[in-house]
Amino acid sequence: MELIKKNSGKKGFTLVEIIVVLVVLAILAAFIIPTMLGFVADAKGKAYIAEAREVYVAAQAVATEYSGLLQMTDSDPYEWYGLTNCLGSTKIATRRDYDLKDPKTDPVIIRDYYTPRVQSSLQMYRYLGNDITISKLDPMNAANITKLSAGESAWTVTVGTDPDRHDTKTAKVTKVVYYKNHYKVTIEENSATVEKY
């Protein structure tokens, strides 16, 4: 009984004091949480810029190597023999399966495997395949961009400086547009921009 009498004299927090503390914490959280989410978004954007630069460097290496071959011109994304077409993620993802089959026994692969267009796509895959999960979806079709699975990447590469000339052999990668996890990274003329879509 004496213990109860001793404790009853001690004063605790009132309900009003507890509510005031909770309101102050809520106000602080309202300022801090969006800031922290912005830091996370910035970090993701910077990570995707690094991946897009990796694609840019690989594309430039392959373009330099393969532009000297007779068939390989800068071209546009839809021209069959052009570097622009062969260095995009769609062709790389489609042609990576060629390495899994025996080129000496499969009739389709016998016809295509040793062509510069297939070899350039395979070289890009060798450079990037261990680091980036490449989607087979065509990023030239805007509807496909929203269908990318989590962690999958897609990109387009532009080779050449004159979009109206498809027979040039500059071997200069002028633009990479990279898509991953609802982020779009554009690398052009030594600058990178990131936007969320």
From TrEMBL:
NCBIfam families: IV_pilin_GFxxxE (TIGR02532)
Gene3D superfamilies: Glycoprotein, Type 4 Pilin (3.30.700.10)
Origin organism lineage: Bacteria, Bacillati, Bacillota, Clostridia, Eubacteriales
Organism encoding this protein: Acetobacterium wieringae
UniProt key word Lyase: no
Bilayer-crossing regions: 12-33
Name assigned to this protein: Type II secretion system protein G
InterPro entries: N_methyl_site (IPR012902), Pilin-like (IPR045584)
Keywords, in A-Z order: Membrane, Transmembrane, Transmembrane helix
Record Pfam families: N_methyl
